[in-house]
Amino acid sequence: MKDSLRRFISVLLCALLLLGSCPAVFADEAPAPHYAQEISDIENTDVLTGYEEQSQALAESADEKEEALNYVLLGDSIAKGSGIVNYEEACYGRIIANTNGYNYVNYGVDGMKSSELLALLKRQNVMNSIENADIINITIGGNNFLHGNIPLLILGVLFRIDPILDNVLDAYYEDLCSIFGIIREANPDAVILMQTLYNPSTGIFRPLLQYGADKLNERIFQYDEEHPDTITIVDIAAKLNGKGYCFAFIHPTARGNEEIAKILLKVLYDMGLGKTTEPVIKVKGRNTIELIPAYLFNPLKIIPFI
Question: Which is more confidently placed, 222 or 164?
């Protein structure tokens, strides 16, 4: 009788232990929070509402897991990863976050200019992310020239008329001053990484794009000289200019995103904010050009940067 009772109690205890362990098993298998979403229109409050949850998630995750740094990416289609189809999983921001175990949110928007990034900073949910960030990574400026100012670039290249571009460049510099000022006021301690603008072309467009990139980069370096210890410049241009195999016209390909990730990972590692300089590629990027057959009836999308 006693043996039977002991067996019954043993079985009961085992069952209770097994039931108690089930939630932990399922918790381990639950998918990680999905932070990266596209803002298709920076004036569309409905689209931006989703970022309130992301900002809250960053704040909560920082409380729950102190060792995980919060990494916020701001900028245009380069930041978004528009040169690849599966940009949410394989852009350089995601590669960096996966490699270093960061909490990650990406506010990259196709076609964004510096003035539009400045407007984006008026959104409270975006500012919540910035206030909770440990690392803020920015790339912006290419569209200041590419959207509506191509004739100015052509004139500048052909005739070396620098003053014709001064209005565009002065406005860009003023935007940079405002952007960095707002971010630094909201978060005095975060590391701000500002990427230089590269020239991906190796063909006939190279002089045109090089001229524009050089002029914009001059303003980035000017800001750093006039406001020391505010930003850290990551010179993507010095590493990738002319390496056409990394790009689909102006956008980084899967290979390009990996190369940009390597450059940023080295900077972060040297600053004591990264675990390694070798990128962790969990999902391989698929280049936009692979979908050309699917776009035969929508010619505008054949060109990746549109």
Answer: 222
Closest by Cα among 110, 42, 112, 115 to 305:
110
CB 105 within 8 A of CB 68: no
Pick the CATH number of 35-302 from 2.70.50.60, 3.40.50.10330, 3.60.140.10, 3.40.50.1110: 3.40.50.1110
pLDDT digits (tens, 9 = 90+) for 179-195: 999 999 999 999 999 99
Question: In the sheet that 103-108 helps form, which strands lie side by side, from edge to edge?
Answer: 103-108, 70-75, 135-139, 191-195, 232-234
Task: Output the six-digit token pair for 78.
Answer: 């380069």
Whether residue 264 contacts residue 223, with contact meaning beta carbons closer than 8 Å, is answered with: no
Paired tokens of 129: 């992310």
pLDDT single digits (tens) 253-265: 899 999 999 999 9
Instruction: Tell me the CA distances in angstroms from 245 to 10, 93, 149, 179, 237, one per residue in order.
Output: 65, 20, 26, 32, 15
Where do the domains of the chain lie? 1-30, 35-302
pTM (predicted TM-score): 0.75
